[in-house]
Write a structure and sequence with these properties.
binds fe (ii) ion; 242 residues; mainly alpha; globular; Hypothetical protein af1432; two-stranded antiparallel sheet
């Protein structure tokens, strides 16, 4: 704000403090309304995912919870945590565009099916990019399968080229995938999953984030709470899908 602008603002505050407060209140009200509309859109899009694949919906909720545990541990502020929440909720939304025969296959995918499955981060970005408020969220979600050593997908980004939120989501995503029980294998215990995350630091995961995650999750476990809810999706979910 220029000096002149500041002077004018101060002048108008002095001349009509009530009018200034009123305008400020209206702006805040509009911002809240805008946020509410965006959150309604989030819930509707996620409802579509739930109808297509109930497992991926529950997975997305747990990934969001784990990502926020890590985000809080590394000191993200409220605004950053909100963006991380959105990006995590949406990270797999592109799976809506994956054929049921692949997405819902009750056994392990073969290599051709895996190729199809690997298109989901770009599909996520395609779905979200067109809606201006989700443009940066689309970018974070698009890169949630990039590996720290540059051997991930879709863009083979490496190290800190990978957006911070995408590095966080990858850890949360892998932790949930490891600890969830699927029709073709039993979920691992938290302890074994922590060891795997540390073992694959530097190659798959950002090592600092992986150790912060393990530390934060151990503290979270001490609370002995079995359920969680999120700021955008208020339902109660089970923490552990094993
Ligand atoms: Fe994914």
């Amino acid at each position: 704000m220029s000096r002149n602008d500041k002077k004018l603002t101060n002048l108008s505050r002095q001349r009509s403090p009530l009018r200034f407060q009123e305008m400020n209140g209206k702006i805040k009200q509009l911002e809240r309304g805008y946020q509410e509309v965006c959150e309604m859109a989030v819930r509707s899009i996620l409802q579509a995912l739930d109808m297509k694949d109930h497992y991926t919906y529950g997975h997305s909720m747990r990934v969001t919870y784990y990502a926020l545990v890590l985000g809080k541990e590394i000191g993200l502020n409220t605004e950053e945590l909100y963006k991380l929440e959105l990006a995590s909720l949406f990270h797999d939304i592109g799976k809506i565009g994956i054929p049921d025969a692949v997405l819902l296959k009750p056994s392990r995918l073969d290599s051709d099916e895996f190729k199809i499955m690997k298109t989901h981060p770009e599909k996520t970005a395609e779905i979200l990019e067109g809606f201006e408020p989700f443009k940066d969220i689309a970018h974070y979600a698009k890169h949630h399968h990039e590996r720290f050593d540059g051997r991930g997908y879709p863009s083979q980004l490496r190290g800190e080229e990978i957006p911070l939120f995408s590095r966080i989501i990858l850890i949360a995503d892998t932790f949930d995938a490891m600890t969830s029980t699927r029709p073709y294998r039993k979920g691992l215990s938290y302890q074994i999953a922590y060891e795997e995350l540390i073992k694959f630091s530097e190659t798959q995961f950002d090592p600092k984030l992986a150790s912060s995650f393990v530390q934060a999750m151990k503290k979270d476990q001490q609370k002995q709470e079995n359920t969680f809810s999120l700021s955008i999706i208020k339902n109660l979910f089970d923490k552990n899908a094993a």
